[in-house]
Design a protein that fits this description.
CATH architecture of one domain: 3-Layer(aba) Sandwich
CATH superfamily of one domain: P-loop containing nucleotide triphosphate hydrolases
Structural class: alpha/beta
Helix content: 25-40%
Number of helices: 10
Number of strands: 10
Strand content: 15-25%
Shape: globular
Distance between the termini: 34 Å
CATH class of one domain: Alpha Beta
């Protein structure tokens, strides 16, 4: 498919005889906003870890932009154009808010090692550009007034926004969001939902998100995949998923 950005084909992941993901097949087209949902332990984060190179599939293949990414290390996959956030926030706690964003630009710097060591050539011009772009991202995420604060001192919701800003600094084609609304109150979740929709349009992104907040998933995702015990049991539009008997049984706790 010409418009296909990411595709997983018959992917399985086995840990000590236990299949965390089994015959995982899915695809994301360029520009889509897709949800991946399921009960706790269903294999959602394992799927993210397979896509981003943290784990390597036991069997199957994952392609991005038409090329296999199986066997690549996480930093190589980031260089290809996939960035992610984490269920448990992973910021550089002792660095400032601004430094957390600037550090993600290192994949795209236009100076060499010697220029950075001796601070000559393009070094200062590039550093100015990076700082300017980093501050623009902080402004988008309403963090510009926190630029010089340590990341660990931010409120929880602001740390979530900073993590997304840092992921965007890597200039991805595909953004993976692992439970971005975790720990947020309803108002923060509403604002996050609006922000995700906006950055998708503004940055021309394709987005895949894991989320437990069903109002967020149903409100912004075009298609949804549902995992149970590492296997996809349903896929479709939010309306399809909401009314699927298997999903109601497995995820929403009702009867099939």
């Amino acid at each position: 498919m010409a418009n296909e950005l990411l595709k997983a084909t018959d992917v399985s992941e086995v840990f000590g005889g236990l299949k965390a993901v089994s015959d995982f097949n899915f695809h994301i087209n360029k520009g889509e906003l897709i949800g991946l949902i399921g009960p706790n332990g269903a294999g959602k984060t394992t799927a993210f870890n397979l896509i981003t190179g943290v784990y390597q599939p036991t069997t199957g293949d994952i392609t991005f932009d038409g090329k296999s990414i199986v066997g690549l290390k996480p930093y190589q996959i980031t260089q290809r154009g996939i960035a992610r956030t984490f269920q448990n926030i992973r910021l550089f706690a002792e660095l400032t808010v601004l430094e957390n964003v600037k550090i993600a630009f290192h994949f795209h710097v236009k100076y060499g090692l010697l220029e950075s060591v001796f601070r000559v050539g393009r070094y200062f011009k590039e550093e100015e550009r990076i700082e300017e772009e980093a501050r623009k991202l902080l402004k988008i995420f309403h963090l510009e007034d926190k630029a010089e604060e340590l990341a660990k001192n931010l409120p929880y919701g602001a740390q979530r926004r900073l993590e997304i800003a840092r992921a965007l600094a890597a200039k991805p084609k595909l953004l993976l969001l692992d439970e971005p609304a975790a720990g947020m109150n309803p108002q923060e979740t509403k604002e996050l939902m609006e922000m995700i929709a906006w950055i998708r349009k503004e940055f021309g992104l394709t987005i895949l998100l894991i989320e437990h907040d069903m109002s967020l998933v149903m409100g912004i995702c075009e298609r949804i995949y549902v995992l149970e015990y590492g296997m996809i049991i349903a896929q479709g539009t939010p309306a399809d998923i909401k009314n699927d008997p298997e999903v109601i049984r497995a995820y929403l706790g009702g009867e099939a």
